[in-house]
Design brief:
- By secondary structure, this protein is mostly helical.
- It has 14 helices and six strands.
- It folds into two domains: 160 residues, no CATH class; 120 residues, no CATH class.
- The chain has a two-stranded antiparallel ribbon.
- Helix 1 crosses helix 3, helix 3 runs antiparallel to helix 9 and helix 8 runs parallel beside helix 10.
- The chain is globular and about 70 Å long.
């Protein structure tokens, strides 16, 4: 009986200054040592099994348990990893797979002495020039690599009616896929009487982050329905019927709200005011995150140092 072909690595190269990489540094600045640890654990799992991580709901739960971190926090880190380019957004959008050019390059380099290394053409991010020296690579259809990936892609495509077109480039043709930005924003505009654009970068980032946490198109529609029912027409809250608020960190709490609860049933008349104050705090957090994204790692450290001094009254 032939031995099974080994796919994963026993060890992988980890630069001693990995924390100085801008993508890693931003995650660490946002989430501290927990965020850094999650990134390393993700890389460990990817290389142990090959060159990608199938980020299914089951894997999210298992990974969160293994690293002993709340699944919401794990999802937030994954969302920002996609946002900052640590993993390829298009591949994740279509196949729910975490991978990148760098990961694939290092994996192919580590396995170049093997007789045969299979790689799915749909997941391959490197061009022909990038892989020309790896003569042991066998490009296969994704069906022969992992049927679960293919099935998940088709189900998601059917549910969310994604717009897909082929992109011509130097190298293997790949599908350029966006999550259902247009479906979600159009639904919000129709229900709330707004006119937001689905092409806005900030809106797309919010939607990607929530999808990385496992939420789907139906969840977005439920949140929109819930908040339109509670906020539309109210002077204090109607302005918060926007992607920035609805698809932000409080998304899950909005999703769990009682859809039958009407604004007039709230216990106190000032509940709307309290909600508005909470939204202002959220706006400040969003602005701070956007400001941090434009800073260098050293500038971020100095910012947090000054902020801590101010909080201590020094």
């Amino acid at each position: 009986m032939a031995r099974p072909i080994k796919e994963g690595l026993d060890y992988f190269p980890l630069d001693v200054d990995i924390d100085q990489d801008d993508k890693v540094a931003i995650i660490e600045a946002q989430y501290g040592i927990v965020g850094f640890g999650i990134v390393i654990k993700l890389l460990m799992h990817i290389y142990k099994n090959g060159y990608y991580y199938q980020w299914t709901e089951k894997e999210q739960l298992l990974f969160a348990r293994r690293v002993n971190v709340d699944i919401k926090d794990v999802g937030a880190v994954i969302g920002d990893c996609l946002r900052w380019g640590m993993f390829d957004e298009s591949t994740f959008g279509e196949y729910q797979v975490l991978t990148s050019k760098g990961i694939q390059k290092r994996y192919f380099e580590a396995t170049k002495r093997r007789t045969r290394v299979e790689v799915a053409k749909e997941l391959l991010l490197l061009s022909k020039d990038d892989i020309k020296d790896y003569t042991n690579l066998v490009i296969v259809n994704i069906n022969s690599v992992d049927a679960d990936i293919y099935l998940q892609s088709k189900v998601k495509e059917s549910k969310e009616e994604k717009r897909i077109h082929i992109v011509e480039q130097d190298g293997p043709a790949r599908r350029d896929v966006s999550p259902a930005y247009e479906d979600i924003v159009d639904y919000l505009n129709a229900k709330a009487g707004k006119n937001y654009k689905h092409t806005t970068k900030a809106t797309q980032e919010k939607i990607r982050a929530r999808m990385a946490e496992g939420f789907g198109l139906d969840d977005f529609k439920t949140v929109i329905d819930n908040k339109v029912r509670h906020w539309k027409g109210d002077p204090s809250n109607d302005r918060y019927l926007r992607p920035e608020t609805l698809f932000g960190p409080k998304f899950e709490s909005y999703l769990q709200e009682n859809p039958n609860l009407k604004p007039t049933q709230k216990k106190r008349a000032n509940d709307f005011t309290m909600s508005a104050e909470s939204e202002r705090e959220l706006e400040e957090q969003i602005k701070e995150r956007e400001m941090l994204s434009k800073m260098t790692f050293m500038e971020q450290n100095e910012y947090f140092r000054q902020k801590q001094e101010a909080a201590n009254g020094r």
